[in-house]
Amino acid sequence: MGHSRAVTGVDHDLEDTRGQHWTLQWIKGGNRCSAVEVDEGILQHQRGHEQFDKVLMGLLQRILDNNKRVQEAACSAFATLEEEAGEELSPRLEIILQHLMCAFGKYQRRNLRIVYDAIGTLADAVGGELNQPKYLDILMPPLITKWHQLSNSDKDLFPLLECFTSIAQALGPGFSQFAEPVFQRCITLIQTQLLAKIDHVSAGVQYDKEFIVCSLDLLSGLVEGLGSGVESLVANSNLRDLLAQCCMDDSADIRQSALALLGDLARVCPIHLLARIMDFLNIAAEQLNPAQLKESASVANNACWALGELAVKVHREISPVVLKVVSYLVPILQNPEDLNKSLLENSAITLGRLGWVCPDLVAPHMEHFLQYWCSALCMIRDDFEKEDAFRGLCAMVRTNPSGAVSSLPYVCRAIASWHEIRSKDLHNEISQVLNGYKQMLGSGAWEQLHSKLEPHVVQKLSRYQV
């Protein structure tokens, strides 16, 4: 969400409560102190918690220092501490929130951005632990007051929108009491900025794409946090049409955030996308063509993921774009060394999901991509998305068994990449596929195949009674 900045370092010495000096690396430009790290060993040491609390309290007290540069250094260092300490902060939430909100009331405009960052990072670190009335009573009233004070053209909204994104994700359904005005304001900000892009006089503000990006990201946070609880808000808004506009925007940053929101909405309330489903499918598919891919891999990554999410929700509705999408995904799988890992994994998962919902369309082309695809599937960690991809593999093999014969060693290695398949149905499907090929090939050819596989692969395959 933020901009990457060139940074320079300046040392500051901050005293903790014992009068010792903690030298912190202050990084200008709003980036975080990188020199403060919490060694996991400290937290396990018999006096680790005591030491940790002393460091924590030393930083919290310095956060309330009157010197602006000390405020900035301490807050920046604390954000790094939060990232490293994670859930260790949960028992100390009340004292942390009290100090941060005291700083929120004390800091001037420039340093407020760092407080927002520290609050957002805290929410990311402790997650649902934050969802308790005693914590929300400290945290939310000052933030909501600031939310109402800032106009729709005030750039100080950016860090507040980002902060709310983390809070919404952390609180989950607990954010529902704050959701409606936040949702509506995001819609208003997007509408206003889309108008300002065409006619800033009518809009009453100068165009700034960052308002759209931050609003889309916050809407994604709301959808992720509230789940199906966001459905009524989406139903009573024009989000679908605004989202279609944003997915086609000439700014890669806007398209990236819009396509992420498209995938999030596909997960929780796909029914509200159906009226423009072909628009969304065509727009997302076009982000994967090789020309677009060179311009922005991050946009392509989100488009690829969104298409996979749509496929498992709208099923055959996706059939008009399936072959186009497959033709774009195969070159990605064939040239993995040039691309980031996330795009490669999403391409493998989405190809599997397309094969699962439309095996009749994808399976005839299987022999052209199966080896590359199976190699990519081996790299994906066990989770429900990998399960979907393997359901697609099984569906395609059932549809076109001969198309996989020449690639069977790759299929076997992909199956062996599972540590554990939790779905009993999928486990049985894979077992049927393997035993089907054993029967199809005959015992001699099956033994020959086995002899070419690595011992650990053969051992893993034994789970499937072959």
TrEMBL record:
Limits of the Importin subunit beta-1/Transportin-1-like TPR repeats domain: 55-272
Alphabetical keyword list: Cytoplasm, Protein transport, Repeat, Transport
Main location: cytoplasm
GO cellular component terms attached to this protein's record: cytoplasm
Entry-linked InterPro entries: ARM-like, ARM-type_fold, IMB1_TNPO1-like_TPR, Importin_beta
One Pfam family it belongs to: TPR_IMB1
Keyword Transport among UniProt keywords: yes
Highest taxon of the lineage: Eukaryota
Cell compartments where the protein resides: Cytoplasm
GO biological process: protein import into nucleus
Protein name stated in the entry: Importin subunit beta-1/Transportin-1-like TPR repeats domain-containing protein
The species this protein was found in: Vanilla planifolia (Vanilla)
Organism phylogeny: Eukaryota, Viridiplantae, Streptophyta, Embryophyta, Tracheophyta
